[in-house]
Structure formats: structure tokens, C-alpha cells
Amino acid sequence: MERKRWECSALPNGWKREEVTRKSGLSAGKSDVYYFSPTGKKFRSKPQLARYLGNSMDLSSFDFRTGKMIFSKLNKNRQRLRYDQNSQNRGKPDLNTSLPVRQTASIFKQPVTKVTNHPSNKVKTDPQKAVEQPRQLFWERKLSGLNVYDIAEELVKSMELPKGLQGVGPGYADKTLLSAIASALHTSSAPITGQLSAAVEKNPGVWLNTSQPLCKAFMVTDEDIRKQEELVFSVRKRLEEALMADVLAQIEEAAIDVAGLEEEEEDDEEDAEEV
DNA sequence: AACCTCGGCAG
DNA sequence: CTGCCGAGGTT
């Protein structure tokens, strides 16, 4: 009998998936899919699974039957349509209206649900793990030389930091500083103050505060905040314009594609007459 | 009582 | 057609 059970990569560790082929009756040959939680509870449908997991997991892109996360359901050929005009995809209008979704791994730490037999064990969050692990002194140097590229691989003008920010330690250029601060903002929920001890400048290897980025202590002025708000506002506006242009371009493309399909139909009719 | 299967309905 | 779940049969 066809009965296989295996670890399911799309679900948290310990979950199993099983597919059972029906061997008699009108529906013989069809198959049923079941999932087993780490505690052994059996699930026979996506709603049942969703009910159990609550909001701790987004199943909207989870394909219950295959057990895989299915991205094509959300985004599919949006990018190909725009940048791969030579492929077979040409000529087919993209009727997908769903919102774009970030597909990169999240740099933010997400909560992890720990399920055990013991009811008092509930939810633990992961961030401590990243913070408590020992880190190499001046590890941020590995980040130097990283740049931002747009989809056409053109170098994007790098961001500028306020003049008040200055790096600390061996060979710290502005670019590394930016990376270091960005990393600090993502890996710690504590306030970012920079290196408060003045001794750091004399002997960074000894006096470095490893939970802070490698920059001198700084003050954020009201002026800095106001400027940043302005910047965010203008960037948002540019994003809005870009999105609008994208939507318009897509509508236009769809119109062209429809025209193309109609032409093809005419061609078909001509071909038919010749035969 | 828990588990296994397949029917049958809803979308 | 597929997904979901009820319910009868089996262990």
C-alpha cells in the first residue's frame, strides 16, 4: 500500500506529511494528505491546520496537498513579464492582481512557537540567540564594500549619514559605518548610542563595547529628526509615483498583449481558410 | 475510543 | 474538478 510519511520542510521541525492513496470504491486512485504535529496530532485539512496554528504561521501560500510553499500563487510572472520579454511568456497578459510580497528571507527575528507535551511551555522568542552568541571584534569590517544595486545592476547612489557620525576603530570608512549602524538597528532592540567610552579611540581592541556599532557617541538633534522626516516623506512620494507608473505600464502592456492575441486569431482564421 | 477510509457535498 | 469533513467500518 502506498503510505509514505516524511519531514515537511515548509512547516516547523518535527512535522510529518503523509499521503495515502485510496485503494477501493468510486474514488479509488485518488489520494488523501495528512499532517502530523510533533505531538502526533493528525490534520486532514488546511482549515484544521490553520485553526491549530493560529496566527503564528501564514498558510496563505502553503499548498496543503504538495506540502510546499507556493510563491507562484502570489507573485508569479510579474518580474518576468517586465524583464524577460523574449521568453515564451510574451503575448500573455498578466491578469494577476495580487499584491507583491517580499520574497527575501526576513532580517527581522520572528517568534518561534515551541510545542511540547507540557502545557506550561508556551512561546519563546528567538532574538536572544542572535544577540548572545559571541561575535568577532570588528566583525563589521566584513560588511565594507557592500553596495546597493538596482535590478539592472546599476550602482545606486549610496546613502549619506549625518556629519555628526564618526567611525571608530581600524580603517573605518563611511560605508562600513553605514553597514555597522544598519546591522545594529536590526540585531538589537536596545538604543544605539555608539561607543560612549572615550578610551575606545586610544585602544579600541580593549575598550570596545561590542553591543554598540563602531562609531563615536553622537547626539541626535531636532534638526536631524526634521531632515530625516523630510527625507522619508520625499522617498515615499517617489515610491508612490514609481508604483503608479508601474501600474500604468502594466495596463498598457496588457492592452498591447490583447491586441497581439487578436492578431494571432486573425492569422489563425487565415490559416484555416488556406486549408 | 481512536483510527482509517471513502462518500458526498460545496465551491 | 478539488478540498473538506461526516460517518460507518475496523482495530
Automatic annotation (TrEMBL):
In terms of SUPFAM superfamilies, this protein maps to: DNA-binding domain
Record-annotated MBD domain positions? 1-69
- State the CDD domains in the record: MeCP2_MBD (cd01396)
Q: Which key words tag this protein in UniProt?
A: Chromosome, Coiled coil, DNA-binding, Nucleus, Phosphoprotein, Transcription, Transcription regulation
Q: Which GO terms describe its molecular function?
A: DNA binding
Where do transmembrane segments lie in this chain?
none
Q: Where in the cell is it found?
A: Chromosome; Nucleus
**Annotated PROSITE patterns:** MBD
- Gene3D superfamilies for the chain: Methyl-cpg-binding Protein 2, Chain A
Coiled-coil spans are 244-271
Is Lyase among the key words of this record?
no
Sorted alphabetically, the Gene Ontology cellular component annotations on this record are: chromatin; histone deacetylase complex
Which residues belong to the signal peptide in this entry? none
Q: Name one Pfam family in it.
A: MBD
Note the SMART domains from the entry.
MBD (SM00391)
Under PANTHER family, the record lists: METHYL-CPG BINDING PROTEIN, MBD (PTHR12396), METHYL-CPG-BINDING DOMAIN PROTEIN 3 (PTHR12396:SF12)
What is the official name of this protein in its record?
Answer: MBD domain-containing protein
Give the originating organism: Coilia grayii
